[in-house]
């Protein structure tokens, strides 16, 4: 689904991503892991176009070269994004937040898909409240719900469980699983919490200081690897 | 040939005053061009030096200094607002320059270096009030003005004058508004109420510039026409009218020393020249332009008389110089640096012109110090030697302030 | 002037973990005491008759579903939100409801926000410097000098939060997790009597979580700590007493085991399979 | 202590060096060279430069509150004008009986509008020390009261900007009124001497120019002292995350008040030095557009750098002087164009172009904090 | 009213002459004589001449008098021929022979001697024409003629009016005549019965008459008059209050109009648009331009200006957005700077291209004057239209912002640009559209303002500060707030003005804003909640 080849990224002078390669196979959940500040979020931003890559290529669905696309066109291709830190629109109501995603839906529907409310009932309950007034976890749910509104083919989740109560985290995991199974969704997940990753991801990739240092089936995520790359 | 005579032109070309002042700059350029075509003065050409003080008062002082100190101009024609004149005054005096000030003003000033070719209050306000009182039979007065020095002073003079004429205090209503005031509903309604007491009422307006359009509009809309309550204005001229739909204003008055509609050959020639110069068929002339016309010609004559552009020589020579004005009469520079002017009252017509309905039988001498203000009624100004005093107190027989400094 | 300096110097002899002598009076029991606190936003009751007591030196974990009112509770304690009814006491002397945020902060209540907030235009080092316990009135701040001891303290904290290499970097460029750490560092610099920590380990790796847990447990005893967290593993590793909030009031309170077996807690919060 | 720290800094040293060198060069060129020498600096230029320096000091004051504290004051002209009026009142009283009406006490404009006695607020302005104290106190006090109210109620962002604008606008209207006793629209003018020196001599003018230079230097050092102190960092913290600063125990409103008042007083000093040099003070200095223009100087020069403010003020005003002379009909195009181009192409202002930005003390462009920094 | 006696005689003459009036045509020599007399006598003597002309029965008389009243009756200097000027603009005037009506082509103004008229004469002429109108078959001219009679009835006329009342068909004309008569009777004769008629009348002449009656020494009359006066005073107070309210609303609606575009560009988009005033100015100039394009049809031009003004300003907005604002994303403060520059450029552009002078915008017939509710309260029409227009614009804007996707998208984009783009929102397009919308609305404001104030290069500057005040007072980002703030500030201003005068009122309003913001630091309708408080 997504093929990242040899990308380099800089924040001003500082080289953040180095020759990075990553494969996200279709219909699977790939989990990116790594310590704080190694560049996971930066990588996601590069895919979304929020940061520009200096070199290398990102190919979506075998054919589309993403690096040439504007940000707004990427979501039109069917990429949904749940960024780190929620990034909801604080002064829009919950419902309006969700409605922002309607524009790019293929079916041109003007209604928020039922599934979103089913998944996060609290959003329905609070649909007229301003996004910014929600509690942290509710905001996170809103961010995920909003990404689902566009019915993406590829869903990028940057630490989605952060701040969400345990039973809902589990539920999110289940939803991911269902979506993958039923709708053939592809998921790119950034996650620090091992149990969650182990449970719901099919593949993993570990980043360290801007480089990909390990990759493979989730079963191959050994304690040794963890010790080497995920602890300080 | 000799160096040209440099003429500084100090009028705002941008900012709020550009609306009034930019035409004066063009007038000066036209006059200079004409003079040059006629061979200049004393065989020397004139060279205009134009600067833009941008309606900013300190900038006026700075530009005046620039003209005098840097460009070394021989004379300056400029300023519109009194505050700008006040701002350049110390500079002109310090550097001993010459300034011709072409706009009506509140008086109470006489400088050795400044020639006031616009009207003093006794050349505009008082005759206008006399006309209203005697010819129209006005008994109740609204003195409406923008809240600053010129209207305040003029109204103070008028108030004293009216009371001296036996008008009761309750028959005088005074109203001040901020600059650029645009909402006249309440005030016009008040005027209407004030004017409906059965006595003939008139408004004496010292409303400044941009506030006039909405004022007259409101008058029209509230149905006050000139036959009911005439308004006589001191700062609404042809140029201001060119921005107003004059249809509803017909009959309201203005007091000036010149109108474009005056039937005089000199005037027609001036208008033709102006239209040719601007290239606009609908270009209008107005009172301050005439003042510059007079001032410029006086300067020319004075330089010829003195045979030099030396400031002191010109200053002495110019007193007594008489040149034709545009209304068919003669303007003379008086020892107090003010000139003689006829006073004309005109009624607004639907074509944006004034029709003269009254005029003083002869010209009036500008009075630097008003007789109707307690502080200045004893002062006179005479810049001829040996008196050379701008504020001579006839009671105490002494020359105040400035001369005292000069004497030290 | 010199008197001020002396005052400022006196506390430098202490290790940074030891709290400053605070004017809090805890002789009569708890350090924090909330009684019958309620607050509603446009009719929505976010906190509903909440009663809570934190003892001096205690480490308390607070859990509860999203929107239960945990953050709002902290807002109330720190003076950000004024409750509609109820009373909040810090020790037995200070009625927090009558105090402004800076007053509350200088009484010795420090807070880490759920969404990390640091001063992005300042460096990591400067962020810590500002947080440092000191006389925070205007003129003393103007004349303050950063002496060696202060520097050492900052370095120490930098070490603890693992941002030594980034000390001169602007806080704005830190990654999410790094900002979390910086905020914890700022909290440490403040040396408060009571620490309110909202979701400290969100976005941290397992091992960092362990370190945080360790840090918080060392603090407890000398300082009182209130932690809000959704990561059960983390809570379990530090928890002595856990309070569960639900819909603005206390649903359950007790040890981790008691709480996690509480049927209501399982229903509204933990889910079946944890 | 905090005042001496900036003196040890490279950038301050450079700034002071350049400033004093400029003062010296101008003085020498003015005094030593004969008038017809091409390099001679005329008294006209000296006064002009003096005016620029006043504006520069004013801009520095604005940069202090805007650049470092995040308070976009659209009313700093008010403080400048108040300082100017305090000085103007002193100068008016110095005229004594040399005015046109020869009244030993009343200024001319009061005589001809028939005032009988000096209003109470004019009392004391015949004494230099009192007047000079008022130069600081009048703007300082206004800033104190206004700031106290505003900061206490946590008025921030555009709301603060607009009420500062309302403040200066209201003052402008008030001072326009003749009844206020400040000369109305015509303002105060016709000054004679200052501390016994005749204002109309070149020597006094040079003296005023030098005094302004020194004032600018002192003002710069004070501001620099503040921004390099811990208080300066707290200011930046207030600017970017006001609420967070409060939770650290800082009384944001007091920090803001302190810096705001200092800034207002500096603006007042600038105004006081300005008045004798331009020879007039009138309510147009209160005009909101003037205050906006000051902000534009700062932004043009480079916000949150202090020396940027100086560069911006001098440059814009120099451009004005030149352009109004060279292209009177079109200078507004040039000036307007300059504003647009600099903003679009030089986001960090001219200072950002000339000097390598060190550690960026410039505000973060974080969308979340935008509102707070406006 | 010295002329009223003359008037009443004239009325007699006219009423006698009316049927055969049109037939008579006096010899041209006599006409020539009359006109010469008019031209050569002093203002004081002209009155008599005018009456002679009116009484001459010449069918051309009305035309002469009308042209005379409007300064268009003139004489060729050289030939002494009497002419009527048909176009008096510029230096050459088109004229026709006053006696024959023959077109004479253009003459230089120099050669034309206008026969001067003044206000007093003009008033007289109007009266003459209106007294003639009392007999007019047209009811509305009779009504206005009858109204002008109030206060100018004299003893001679008083004898005739009852007859007129009797024959009059229309009730309002009758009422007006009755009142006119009553005024005369109360004032001049102290007629007790007539006092009754005047009780409750709002006419100012009626009030003057009653006042006079109150000074009489007939206690009965005084009592009756006092009572009548009291009832009038009560009514007047009410009317005064209604009037003030109206003034307040109309000033308020002007403020709303001026500010509402800014509520979009500044309030919603966050662009501190200092050029907003100049966009208003562009709208106003468009109106002027339209009227130049369609001479003689000011009304049509005005209506067409509504779309045109919107388009022009919107286009200017697009240009500003594309050339300046788009580079300042995320730097809201810098927009202040750049748009300040833009505003300088636009102002100077208008000065250079059009003129530094104000331009005349004509108020169409249907917008001038006022609707009279009663004699003490009339609502000026132009203001009434502006109030309506403001409300319509507001409603339209509200619809767009609330009901279309643009409203949602623009808010999303301003709150978090990158995230909005990540959601597929075309931020650039949204920016352009929104800025164009805000600018266009500013243009609409300009169209409306052209009917109220100056159309000149400074137009914008005089509204920009007020606009910002209104938006901020209402609460940034809230359209309702802008509406309420504008209306509130307008009303407060008008309430204060009679008390303290216009200048202090303005100062007080500013102080009020400052104090109000202390109470509500985020305006009338603050953005509430966590997000806003940060
Ligand atoms: N705007 C920026 N400018 C400069 N450096 C940046 C910027 N944003 C991030 N960085 C740096 O780039 C590195 C990678 O950051 P990134 O946010 O991708 O980390 P991450 O792997 O997502 O970490 P975390 O687990 O904490 O979310 C960090 O060291 C950070 O300091
Ligand atoms: N200003 C406000 N306006 C409206 N609702 C609010 C406001 N502040 C908080 N709320 C509501 O109050 C409830 C409590 O919020 P709070 O942030 O305290 O929850 P929390 O327990 O911290 O949740 P989480 O674990 O998700 O962070 C939420 O439902 C939230 O939507
Ligand atoms: C009437 C004004 C336009 C001129 C007057 N001299 C002034 O004070 O500004
Ligand atoms: Mg990250
Ligand atoms: Mg929370």
Automatic annotation (TrEMBL), chain A:
* SMART domains named among the record's database cross-references: AAA
Q: Tell me what this protein is called.
A: Urea ABC transporter ATP-binding protein
CDD domains from the entry? ABC_TM1139_LivF_branched
Domain ABC transporter positions: 2-232
Is the Signal keyword given for this protein? no
Q: Which UniProt keywords apply?
A: Amino-acid transport, ATP-binding, Nucleotide-binding, Transport
Molecular function as annotated in GO: ATP binding; ATP hydrolysis activity; branched-chain amino acid transmembrane transporter activity
Looking at the keywords, is ATP-binding present? yes
InterPro entries in alphabetical order: AAA+_ATPase (IPR003593), ABC_transporter-like_ATP-bd (IPR003439), ABC_transptr_urea_ATP-bd_UrtE (IPR017780), BCAA_Transport_ATP-bd_LivF (IPR052156), P-loop_NTPase (IPR027417)
The text of the family note is: Belongs to the ABC transporter superfamily.
The residue range of the signal peptide is none
Residues forming coiled coils:
none
SUPFAM superfamilies per the record? P-loop containing nucleoside triphosphate hydrolases (SSF52540)
Please provide the Gene Ontology terms (biological process) for this protein: L-amino acid transport
From TrEMBL, chain C:
Q: Which UniProt keywords apply?
A: ATP-binding, Nucleotide-binding, Transport
Alphabetical GO CC annotations of the entry are:
plasma membrane
| Gene Ontology molecular function | ATP binding; ATP hydrolysis activity
Protein's UniProt keywords contain ATP-binding: yes
Check the record and name the CDD domains matching this protein. ABC_Mj1267_LivG_branched (cd03219)
Protein name in UniProt? Urea ABC transporter ATP-binding protein
Species the sequence originates in: Marinobacter psychrophilus
Automatic annotation (TrEMBL), chain D:
Q: Which GO terms describe its cellular component?
A: plasma membrane
Q: InterPro entries of this UniProt entry? A: ABC_transp_permease, ABC_transptr_urea_perm_UrtC, LivM-like
User: Is Transmembrane helix given among the entry's keywords?
Assistant: yes
Q: What subcellular compartments does it reside in? A: Cell inner membrane
Keywords in alphabetical order:
Cell membrane, Membrane, Transmembrane, Transmembrane helix
Q: Does the keyword Ion transport apply?
A: no
UniProt GO MF annotations? branched-chain amino acid transmembrane transporter activity
Membrane topology classification? Multi-pass membrane protein
- Record's Pfam families? BPD_transp_2
| Residues spanning the membrane | 12-33, 39-58, 65-87, 127-151, 158-176, 206-227, 255-274, 294-318, 330-350
- What PANTHER family does the record point to? HIGH-AFFINITY BRANCHED-CHAIN AMINO ACID TRANSPORT SYSTEM PERMEASE, SLR1201 PROTEIN
NCBIfam families per the UniProt record, alphabetical: urea_trans_UrtC
Identify this protein by name: Amino acid ABC transporter permease
* Species, as recorded: Marinobacter psychrophilus
From TrEMBL, chain E:
User: PANTHER family attached here?
Assistant: ABC TRANSPORTER PERMEASE PROTEIN, BRANCHED-CHAIN AMINO ACID TRANSPORT SYSTEM PERMEASE PROTEIN LIVH
Look up the record and report any one GO term of the cellular component aspect.
plasma membrane
Instruction: Look up and give the membrane topology term.
Output: Multi-pass membrane protein
Chain segments annotated as coiled-coil in the UniProt record: none
Instruction: Give the signal peptide as a residue range, or say none if absent.
Output: 1-24
Alphabetically ordered keywords of this record: Amino-acid transport, Cell membrane, Membrane, Signal, Transmembrane, Transmembrane helix, Transport
Q: Output this protein's name.
A: Urea ABC transporter permease
GO molecular function terms listed in the Swiss-Prot or TrEMBL record: transmembrane transporter activity
Q: Which organism is it from?
A: Marinobacter psychrophilus
Residues annotated as transmembrane? 245-272, 300-320, 332-350, 384-401, 432-452, 464-487, 499-517
Q: Where in the cell is it found?
A: Cell inner membrane
**Top-level taxon of the source organism:** Bacteria
Under the heading Pfam families, the entry gives: BPD_transp_2
Q: Per the UniProt entry, what are the Gene Ontology biological process annotations, in alphabetical order?
A: amino acid transport
Q: What family does the database annotate? A: Belongs to the binding-protein-dependent transport system permease family. LivHM subfamily.
